[in-house]
Design goal:
The protein is an all-alpha fold. It has one domain (5-56, 136-293). The protein has helices at residues 5-23, 34-56, 61-90, 96-107, 111-119, 125-128, 136-158, 163-181, 186-191, 193-213, 219-241, 254-269, 277-282, 285-293. The protein starts with a helix and ends with a helix.
């Protein structure tokens, strides 16, 4: 895979929004949607890499999982040990037991299940006072990383021509769960993979479509690609500034950010896009550095 500076820029925008939201939430009330941008981008990058290796005949699930583990576990372990020790030092004896227990669930790749069963909604007081609540999104990603290669290999073997259709169908099902269950079951809908997979699958869908083409876009698509970039950038930035119905947990909040990121990824995924203003903005040194650090 060739490196795309514009994708680093998308990641940079997402992490900046998340950090500003946690420090100054009143100034960026929808900054938490940066996580939704990360989900779409992760689905795109992982699918593109897997499909590239499958096409070359060199993909191995064991190697893929090991690479993911080596990328995540060292930093994650250091963070968990530091947080538990700090919690034990700052608070009375025994206060760190629940944090340590949650840390074990996090190391096992299921922190979102712990939050769902023990702490309730992400916006509730119990989750608010947990120092490891932010690990929920890592759990979503890790669970998806395990299932994605199995799904893509199965489809590649039995019905390769329908791969994009299968991804679209699964994504639509997950999105329906997200919208229909968000109000009635807010905690489970927020934390669990079946209702969150649509965001990662949106990135998968774009990667699969680009892989199917394996050629440059048609002239009409090329002509309108900068427009996609502006619309995508506008949706992402607008989602950071506003949130639907003034409720952080509204099921409609992630949709503009995810769609906007999807348009940006499609725009950047064609190849060199630094010739237009959106591409040059996303490929700027500051955003790229921040994105790589994240």
């Amino acid at each position: 895979m060739s490196h795309s500076p514009a994708l680093d820029g998308i990641r940079g925008i997402a992490i900046a929004a998340v950090l500003v939201f946690h420090v100054l939430p009143e100034h960026l009330p929808g900054g938490f949607a940066g996580v939704d941008v990360f989900f779409v981008l992760s689905g795109f990058l992982l699918t593109r890499r897997i499909l590239s290796e499958v096409r070359q005949g060199g993909f191995r699930i064991g190697s893929f999982v090991l690479r993911r583990a080596m990328r995540i576990l060292p930093n994650l372990t250091l963070m968990l040990i530091s947080v538990v020790l700090l919690w034990a030092w700052l608070f009375p004896p025994g206060a760190s037991q629940d944090v340590a227990r949650q840390g074990l669930w996090t190391l096992a790749g299921i922190p979102n299940l712990y939050l769902w069963t023990h702490l309730g909604t992400y916006w509730g007081p119990a989750a608010h006072w947990s120092p490891l609540t932010h690990a929920w999104s890592l759990g979503i990603g890790e669970q998806f990383y395990v299932l994605l290669p199995l799904f893509l290999l199965t489809v590649h073997r039995w019905c390769p021509q329908q791969r994009t259709s299968w991804i679209l169908g699964l994504g639509a099902t997950s999105l329906s769960i997200w919208v229909l269950c968000g109000t009635r079951y807010p905690a489970g809908t927020f934390y669990l993979l079946p209702s969150r997979a649509w965001e990662l699958l949106l990135g998968c869908l774009i990667a699969s479509h680009l892989d199917d083409r394996l050629t440059s876009a048609a002239p009409l698509v090329q002509r309108w690609s900068p427009v996609w970039g502006w619309i995508g950038l506008g949706l992402v930035l607008a989602s950071f500034s506003f949130h639907a119905e003034r409720q952080p947990g509204s099921p409609w909040n992630p949709i503009p950010a995810a769609l906007g990121c999807g348009l940006l990824v499609a725009h950047a995924g064609r190849g060199s896009v630094t010739v237009d203003r959106v591409g040059r903005f996303l490929s700027s040194r500051g955003l790229g550095t921040l994105g790589r650090l994240s």
